[in-house]
């Protein structure tokens, strides 16, 4: 049994499709099929049932998935430990970030990191707070940088920046006239919301609860998977949304969105990593860099709004 065979098995198990697994691994279909067949023949087990053009894990295959993942994780840990012995940050650093962080705060930090540690292969995956945290828990990511709350027992968290939420509407909305809103006014309009799992949505719903409002009482007409989609929907109609001031500032400066006079909370950007996994030089160097004082230019001009 080889690590390459285990890698192929896990990818086929994830996608339940030989051709797609081959494409993802940049291998030929025959090479992937041969690796699976070799595992099955050597150990006298059937790992997949062939159903038409698709395949599905057998009971033996499902049981083997966790073992294979554990072996691959240990192999990666050994590789990282060996890289650390080289004396400087190197190897691969997998960073998963939520959208607001990845779009408006993290890029300059990643550029600075690459300039300081060019031997590190940085890999960024963008999702939402929930998916980023889950990736660290499962070992798919070394670091999560998110705007949502991180309350997971095995994760070590540190605050790296602050961000302010703002309530925004389009030019045709009645609230664009600069009026000051009361909490009860929030029930009188339609809303565009980020998807479940978004740190932005979780923070807004927490704010509503603190004001004595049930988030379920809002009239939510659309859920959007990104800040840009939410802003486009608000600009085009008569709904409201809550997003990061970093995301909306250029649209509001251009007059396409109006920041409503309603108090919104500050929230924290957090970096989180698994406390029980080896902290490599590459990861430690990233944590140190994110902790540096870069200045909070993203709040300039809008921090006092609302």
Proportion of residues in β-strands? 15-25%
The gross shape turns out to be globular
Uncertain runs: 295-306
Number of helices: 11
SS elements, strand count: 11
Question: Which structural class do you get from the secondary structure elements?
Answer: alpha/beta
Topology:
Layout: H1 3-15, H2 18-25, H3 29-43, E1 48-51, E2 54-57, H4 59-84, E3 91-98, H5 99-104, H6 106-116, E4 120-127, H7 129-138, E5 143-146, E6 155-170, E7 190-194, H8 199-210, E8 219-224, H9 227-236, E9 240-244, H10 245-253, E10 257-259, E11 266-274, H11 281-290
Parallel strand pairs: 3-4, 3-5, 7-8
Antiparallel strand pairs: 1-2, 5-11, 6-9, 6-10, 6-11
How would you describe this protein?
This protein has 306 residues and is an alpha/beta fold. It has helices at 3-15, 18-25, 29-43, 59-84, 99-104, 106-116, 129-138, 199-210, 227-236, 245-253, 281-290; strands spanning 48-51, 54-57, 91-98, 120-127, 143-146, 155-170, 190-194, 219-224, 240-244, 257-259, 266-274. The strands form 3 sheets. Strands 3, 4, 5, 6, 9, 10 and 11 form a 7-stranded mixed beta sheet that branches. Strand 7 (190-194), helix 8 (199-210) and strand 8 form a beta-alpha-beta unit. Mean pLDDT is 88; it is low at 295-306.
Provide a brief overview of the structure.
With 306 residues, this protein is of the alpha/beta class. It has helices spanning 3-15, 18-25, 29-43, 59-84, 99-104, 106-116, 129-138, 199-210, 227-236, 245-253, 281-290, and strands at residues 48-51, 54-57, 91-98, 120-127, 143-146, 155-170, 190-194, 219-224, 240-244, 257-259, 266-274.
């Amino acid at each position: 049994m080889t690590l390459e065979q285990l890698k192929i098995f896990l990818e086929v198990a994830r996608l339940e499709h030989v051709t797609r697994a081959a494409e993802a691994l940049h291998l030929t279909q025959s090479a992937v099929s041969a690796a699976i067949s070799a595992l099955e023949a050597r150990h006298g087990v059937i790992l997949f049932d062939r159903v038409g053009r698709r395949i599905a894990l057998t009971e033996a295959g499902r049981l083997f998935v966790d073992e294979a993942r554990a072996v691959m994780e240990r192999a990666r840990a050994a590789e990282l430990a060996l890289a650390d012995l080289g004396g400087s940050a190197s190897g691969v650093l997998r960073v998963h970030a939520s959208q607001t962080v990845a779009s408006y705060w993290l890029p300059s930090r990643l550029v600075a990191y690459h300039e300081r540690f060019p031997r590190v292969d940085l890999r960024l995956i963008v999702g939402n707070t929930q998916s980023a945290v889950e990736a660290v828990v499962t070992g798919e990511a070394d670091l999560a940088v998110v705007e949502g709350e991180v309350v997971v027992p095995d994760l070590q968290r540190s605050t790296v920046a602050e961000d302010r939420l703002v309530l925004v509407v389009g030019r045709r909305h009645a609230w664009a006239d600069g009026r000051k809103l009361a909490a009860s006014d929030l029930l009188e309009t339609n809303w565009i919301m980020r998807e479940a799992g978004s740190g932005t949505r979780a923070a807004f719903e927490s704010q509503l609860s603190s004001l004595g409002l049930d988030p379920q009482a809002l009239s939510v007409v659309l859920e959007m998977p990104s800040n840009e989609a939410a802003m486009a929907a608000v600009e085009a109609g008569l709904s409201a949304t809550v997003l990061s001031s970093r995301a909306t500032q250029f649209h509001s400066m251009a007059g396409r969105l109006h920041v409503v006079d309603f108090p919104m909370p500050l929230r924290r950007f957090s970096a989180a990593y698994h406390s029980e996994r080896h902290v490599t030089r590459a990861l430690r160097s990233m944590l140190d860099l994110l902790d540096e004082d870069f200045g909070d230019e993203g709040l300039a001009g809008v921090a006092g709004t609302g």
